[in-house]
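G.,

No rush on this.
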Amino acid sequence: MNRAEEPFSKTNLIARSALQLVVALRCEQVSPHELLDALEQQINLVDGAINALPTLCFKRARKHADALMQKPVSQRGLLCGLPVAIKDLNQVAGVIISMGSPIFKDRVAINSDYMVEQIEQQGGIIYAISNSPEFGAGGNTFNDVYGFTRNPKDLAMTVAGSSGGAAAALASGSAWLAQGSDNAGSLRSPAGYCGIVGMRPSIGRVANGPSATPYDSMAVNGPMARNVEDVALFLDAMSEEDSRDPFSLPKPKIGFLTTAQMRKRPLKVAFSPDLGITPVDPEIASICEQAAMKFKAMGAQVDFVSPDFTGVHSSYQTLRAHSFAMALGGLYKDNPSSFKAEIVENIERGLNLTAAEIAQAELTRGVLRARMGVFFEDYDLLLCPTSIVPPFPVEQRYVDSCNGVEFSTYIDWLAIVYAITLVSLPALSLPCGYTESGMPVGLQMICRHRGDADLLSYALSLQDQFGEE
């Protein structure tokens, strides 16, 4: 990690990258307390309108910063005192974690999640909890506990979901690093809508739990930041093998930041505006195609082709309903009137599934995964839009149609991201342009099995191209 060429200045800390600040923390040019003070001031300035971080825990953060500062710099972890925001689905000991549900609106977490423990072990200072829709369900961040989160680029528009508070905090300068989680694009979609970077890593790359369903392989935790290098830095801090998670992977010998900074370039790239499974707004398709063609200018072969995703809709939606029934079925039985309609739909469908339906969904998932394996024997990278439509009005619960195609469920419009969830591949949303109305557009970048490091390297190479414009 190299120091910035210019002398470090404490003016406008909010505009600094996470990587720059970690370097400054290690050199003791700035303290965690000064960073917390800067964030608190920024939150007071902007978050009243945005509502990205409804729960603040600065007292806890300063206590943790005090303890960290008692250690030698060499023992302060990869983040060395950098503040981090955590999503309101993950337990942080001593902090109210509501999960966006009235059932838990006053519940204080007793213990922290494994991932939170890991972040704190690496010197991350948790200062805020980011807003999420109820139990993380839905592509728009709102709930009956804290209300709507609004897009910093246009307060009338949504940030998508479910990691919408995390993305909005990054876009508004209220965070340098924010953790998100992802099932149906819950991390990628908000990144695209807010013009930041969000990565869904491989299953097991970030330890998950404790959980009543430890073998559920749909949702993962991942890093979000304002640029690719900061995402790689955060993934390094989040990654560590944990025997309590049955999918947990060993930490790589070479760090993700180091690999990303090698700026490896793909040789053969596939681009599809729709993955063959969904309508897409023409403006979004055009912007993402232009971004994909930058790889051609970099010397790569770019083909307009997609893997075969036949069967993805029924398989994903069946397994999603099964997951909801397992995770929330008991709570729903005890509190039937305390869930929003979309979640009720998922839970009840899950409770009524037959063994034959679940078996068919799993078999289809296996076929799709095999097809992806064959596809990535020929291609280094698959590109497509992160979202099929630009940000929509915040009061609109979800997208019900696109290009004249009517959707039957509240998550049909998220097929372009949930298809990648189903086949368990690492994916990243990179800002790639703006609509005519000035709203950000994200390019979804997908890599082969456990290709997290290559994905970050490819993404940084492409990010450099945008920086040169």
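When you get to it, here's the other one too:
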Amino acid sequence: MRNKIGVMQGRLLPKYQGRYQAFPVGNWRDEFKVAKEYRIDLIEFILDFNDFKENPLLEISGINEIANISKDTGVMVKTICADYFMEAPLHSSDYKVAENSFIILRKLLEAAKALKITDIVIPCVDQSSLKTKEAINIFVKQITKIIPEIEKENINLSLEVDLAPKPFLKLLDKLNSKNITVNYDIGNSAALGFNLIEELEAYGDKISDIHIKDRVLGGGPVVLGEGNADFYSFFNKLKEFDYNGPFIMQAYRDDEGLEIFQKQLLWIKKIIQDSYEN
């Protein structure tokens, strides 16, 4: 089975305002042409907290422009990484923040319907981590409100968390929906010291979006193959679950992005090919 290869938005462009990962206000359109040249199937769109009102996902005219550029280049947008919720968590103890974030989630769902998006990635890591019982309870209450709609439209809310396998599975069981799925980040898992076999055995069948990244244990991103992520073991185990979602390149980047991206793309493609052929 050939899974589609995608790229996290902005990785094929110079850093926006010097930020490592950000929605590239002003030149986001250019990335579709570059992606086409590199034979990339997909761009995973980012919704940032900063400048979120500039994001085309939140306006009908912008959604139409994304659709037209996708049609012209053949580079599709099938997933959204909602980094907005890193700064303004859906489970914030500040009622107003949580309420406004839920409004944004509904807007993303409207964009997802229009663009035939399969996954909205909800990051619950770092400052938006589900560290307390209170945070988990608020999160479950918020997400439960929108489950009937995502099930009706068959759009996944793909959760990216820094929970160990058992607590994460417990959270998924609480939410209890086929459309509450897992965003698996290979690098983040390695940095946290989790056992990938235990993770996949716990919820491998619920993974719908995969971020390709490498990190050192307890540290930051590095070039693919130079960190603690065990890519061969991961892809060999993944074969057991008939995964048919995308592989999104969120790998290490420098200021410009392209040369280091191409090197890592070729490296990971070979590993995926070797794993699936053996």
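The first helix runs from residue 30 to 37. Residues 141 and 179 are 16 Å apart (CA to CA).

Enjoy the weekend,
O.
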